[in-house]
Amino acid sequence: MKDLLEKNNLIKPAQIGKIVEGKIIGKARSAVFLDLGPMGTGIIYGKEFQEAKEEIKKFKIKDALFAKIIDLENETGYIELSLSQASDELTWEKLKQQKDEDEILKVKILGANKGGLISEVFGVPAFLPVSQLLPEHYPRVENGDFSKIIKELQKFVGQDLEVKVFDLDPRQGKLILSEKAKKYGKIKEILKN
Question: Which pLDDT band, with edges at 50, 70 and 90, does 9 fall under?
Fold first, then answer.
């Protein structure tokens, strides 16, 4: 009975925008075919194939991967899929989870501007505003001179900092980090105990 229920649960109708897992059953010069079980066969081709070409090269026949349904049945009868849209969505989902679970991340600082530090998390560009730095990292300069602030902040380029996800907006591609939040998390923990 349990097996029957599980089988019935697997036969969910395909929907545009849904992320599905499929096994690679065939590769062509500019297309990949995936077995989506009871849903049928999916295809990644055209613009979607070009965007994910480097990623697709890493996979072999029978490998499983996640893709997003972008068309239920194209002119050849396949379910059209996007690998890049699925990985973007899964990345933002992972970032949201890290924010919700108050997780500490280690990030490499890639650049600096007068407003803060630039980094990336899972390939997503991220910003660590000056206001979210730990007090000991805050650039204290006379008269708030921007060129001196940037000079101070550039000392962090190439360093690893521990941060938390402070805010995120997948639609705008905005990811804000906080170094301060890490310290306040510890204070909260101490007060709770």
Answer: very low
What burial letters (b/e) apply to 71-107, b meaning 16+ CB within 10 Å? eeeeeeebbbbbbbbbbbbebbeebeebbeeeeebeb
Q: From residue 88, how far is each of 99, 102, 105, 124, 190 by CA, in Å?
A: 17, 21, 19, 9, 36
Q: Which amino acid is at 189?
A: E
Q: Is the pLDDT of residue 25 over 90?
A: yes
Residue 174 neighbours by CB under 8 Å, 6+ apart: 127, 167, 168
Q: Which residues pair with 121 in a beta bridge?
A: 124
pLDDT band at residue 53 under the 50/70/90 scheme = confident
Residue at token pair 């639609």: 171
What three-state secondary structure class fits 42?
strand
* Cα distance between residue 180 and residue 130, in whole Å: 10
From residue 49, how far is each of 27, 96, 162, 173 by CA, in Å? 11, 27, 36, 22
The DSSP result for 56-90, as a single string, is: HHT--TT-EEEEEEEES--TTSPEEEEHHHHHHHH
